[in-house]
Amino acid sequence: MGIKWTDPAVITRTSKVFGAFTMVLTGVALWDVLSTLWFEWQILSGKRKWKWPMTIYFIARLAMLSHIFAITINRNALSEVPCKELTFMSKFCDVVGTCASSLILVLRTRAVWHRNRKVTVLMGLLFLGQIAMWSQTFRFSKAQWNQTRMLCDVLSTAPRMMMVGVWGYTMIFDFIILVVCVYQLISHVSSTLGKVLLRDGIAYFCAAFVANLLQTIFAGLQLNPVMNIMFLPFALVVSVIAATTVFRNVFTAYDAFSNDTGHSGNSGHSSSRHHEGSVLRTGARILFKHNTTITTKAMSENEISLAGYSRKKSDVEAGAVSVRKEDDGDGEHRPDTEVNGTPEKRQNL
């Protein structure tokens, strides 16, 4: 005989499982935040240059923590809690966290494509569509305090087709981001940052796809109100952790590159004006180029942009580094600087 999922006793048991599951996710979310506090501290202390996409990074992290804490408080309440407010907070943070995660990848894809207008418009329209889809789910989420069970009982969630549509749209959106980004990166796979972005993009898609697929399946089954949202916090935690990891890895990849160039610059070898190397920008644009010279050039079509300045790394024997400041659209002139075997003033990210 099959399980009668709408039976009150079954709903009670699944609610306990959901509560235990959210406690595990709370631990995972806290572990991720605490283990990467060094990055936030570098930003807040001014050691790493502030860039506006970092705002989205912080919003995604705060939304993840707020969402998971709201559910944890609800499932482990010692006295009556405001169910309406907690439910709204949980839902709002879920929407913000999911959309912020996608936006991080949208901005990364736009940077890889040199801020191409067609790609920007495509990504922008898809992102607005995601916001519109998610905003429709607010009015359906309802909960009521249950004095016997000492928690907020989930009374209703969004209709089946809406939930499947929202999560399906998110999965398709992530897939489009992956395809567009990989298409541009595949020709730069030999460069260090190209490998990082390609690896992280595929890893993000796989992690987010599995998490969102589980939530889509349970939302489509409509077993009971609790089972409908069983994997909702899981999908958010996985998406935010994956997206913010991609964001951090761009900066840490640059840090490793910068250390290598600094070491080579002090090695005492003679410099070469023509060599094979790569250019890396971090921030608003990422720039890769092979078979380049130290002299300043305008960005060519085979470059990938992503920062406020760029460096050129020569062969190990060359010991020459060129730092090229560029205009990121703010109207401020950025001079060129060349370094040959002697470290010069560095620009922080």
Automatic annotation (TrEMBL):
Protein name (record): Transmembrane protein
Region of interest: Disordered: 312-349
Residues spanning the membrane: 20-44, 56-74, 119-136, 166-189, 201-223, 229-247
Keywords per UniProt: Membrane, Transmembrane, Transmembrane helix
Domain of life from the UniProt record: Eukaryota
Biased composition (Basic and acidic residues): 323-349
